[in-house]
Design brief:
With 405 residues, this protein is an alpha+beta fold. It is built from 15 helices and nine strands. Strands 4-3-6-7 form a four-stranded mixed β-sheet, with helices on both faces. It has a three-stranded antiparallel β-sheet with strand order 1-2-5, with no helix packed on it. Strand 8 and strand 9 form a beta hairpin. Helix 1 runs antiparallel to helix 2 and helix 7 packs parallel to helix 9. The longest helix is centred in the N-terminal third of the chain and has 15 residues. It starts with 16 loop residues before the first strand and ends with a strand. 37% of the residues are buried.
Length: 405
């Protein structure tokens, strides 16, 4: 359900960096793998002091009062005009204006132009589309149409896969403006090119429902739900349509979504079962994957880990996955996952340890899964031929409500 966009702005407000195919927090000191020392809770690299521009941006971003926040962001741009966070600050100012002073059309358009002007060429189409989305959701359809059209035009100069997302936003803008025929054409082209573009599926669902085709609307919304980017309003619409045709109940909806997901997003790796060689020992290999539910570059590592579990019996390989709050809050994160990340001094995701050693280059989108999987299996296969240094014999049994080991 993730996508790795080929043109992403610096996620400065989350203190993130794209490095080597992964999402990272503020710059870390030398990793423990670069030394002979093993990481531990007591020792390990200490994070560097936060740069002044990052600190100033974070302080401005946390201000709850809109006017004071606006002034602080503007001051940030004056104080740090060459900061990596300038583009994000301009975007934040636009969002503050749109949310709190939607009647200031001229100021909003001027700010939107600043956002685009500050963008480097590789990120231009993405930012144009992002601005168009912000304006559309605020009901400023004329301005949104202008920026969505510019985004679509910029695709010819940049990355073709972004065309579907730009078409989808333009289609939804036209739908709001009553240009039904143009909207349907754009939305269908976007959907056929990439069904994982949420706005395309949501827009087509709206068209289907208006024409009385509830079944098609439900199918489009189910597809949109799988992207992980569906708005609460669209989710509510999905559930209402499902109840309408299922006796006012939601029973079975999740099963339908699961089946649809497996059909649309099957693992790109075709797995061959592991065949032990004559050198196979009794050793078990441990693979630990640090991931995040909102992390686009974690897709390849997650799917590769899934394929690993399909290739090897549990007696050969133990796979543990730890979720972290990178780049977004993650409900699967807990004190245990954070403690393990601290043990390894993990500061970014995806991060993979195979028998305690770092495996680099695990980040990427679905198309990169095979390469990541091949690296994993080479290390695992060789690890299974290393003599075990210790044997553990465990027995477990149930006693009342407790498991005794």
């Amino acid at each position: 359900m993730h996508q790795l966009f080929s043109s992403l702005p610096v996620c400065f407000n989350l203190l993130l960096y794209f490095v080597g195919g992964g999402l990272f927090l503020a710059p870390a000191a030398q990793s423990p793998q670069a030394t002979s020392e093993k990481p531990s809770f007591q020792t390990g690299p200490q994070p560097r002091e936060m740069p002044a521009d990052m600190k100033a941006y974070m302080e401005a971003a946390r201000i709850p009062d809109p006017q004071k926040k606006l002034e602080a962001l503007q001051k940030f741009l004056v104080d740090f005009p060459n900061s990596q966070g300038a583009a994000s600050a301009n975007q934040a100012i636009l969002e503050v204006l749109v949310k709190n002073w939607p009647d200031k059309k001229d100021q909003i358009q001027a700010q939107a132009d600043k956002v685009i002007k500050a963008a480097n060429s590789p990120g231009r189409a993405y930012l144009l589309n992002s601005v168009a989305t912000t304006l559309m959701e605020a009901g400023m359809v004329d301005l949104a149409e202008d920026f969505a059209s510019k985004s679509l035009a910029a695709i010819d100069e940049e990355v073709r896969p972004r065309r579907a997302a730009s078409l989808a936003i333009l289609g939804r803008v036209w739908l709001k403006k009553g240009k039904t025929a143009e909207a349907e054409k754009a939305l269908k082209e976007a959907y056929n090119a990439d069904p994982s573009v949420t706005d395309a599926a949501v827009g087509l669902a709206e068209l289907a429902e208006k024409s009385g085709n509830d079944a098609a609307a439900l199918d489009y919304l189910a597809t949109a739900a799988l992207t992980g980017k569906m708005k609460s309003q669209s989710r509510k619409q999905l559930e209402e349509l499902y109840r309408k045709s299922h006796g006012d109940k939601l029973d079975g909806l999740e099963a339908i979504l699961d089946a649809k997901y497996k059909n649309l997003y099957s693992n790109p790796v075709r797995v061959e079962a592991y065949k032990p060689t004559a050198a196979r020992t009794e050793r078990v290999v441990l693979i630990e994957v640090f991931s995040g539910a909102g992390c686009p570059p974690c897709v390849a590592a997650d799917l590769a880990a899934d394929a690993v579990m399909e290739r090897y019996p549990r007696k050969d390989v133990a796979v543990l996955v730890y979720h972290l709050h990178i780049p977004q809050p993650d409900p699967l994160t807990n004190p245990s996952t954070e403690a393990r990340a601290k043990f390894y001094s993990v500061r970014g995701v995806p991060s993979v340890r195979i028998d305690g050693d770092t495996e680099t280059g695990a980040g990427g989108d679905r198309a990169m899964t095979r390469g990541v999987y091949d690296r994993f299996t080479r290390l695992i296969d060789s690890g299974l031929e290393v003599p075990a240094g210790i044997r553990l014999n465990l027995e477990a049994f149930l006693q009342g409500s407790q498991v005794k080991v």
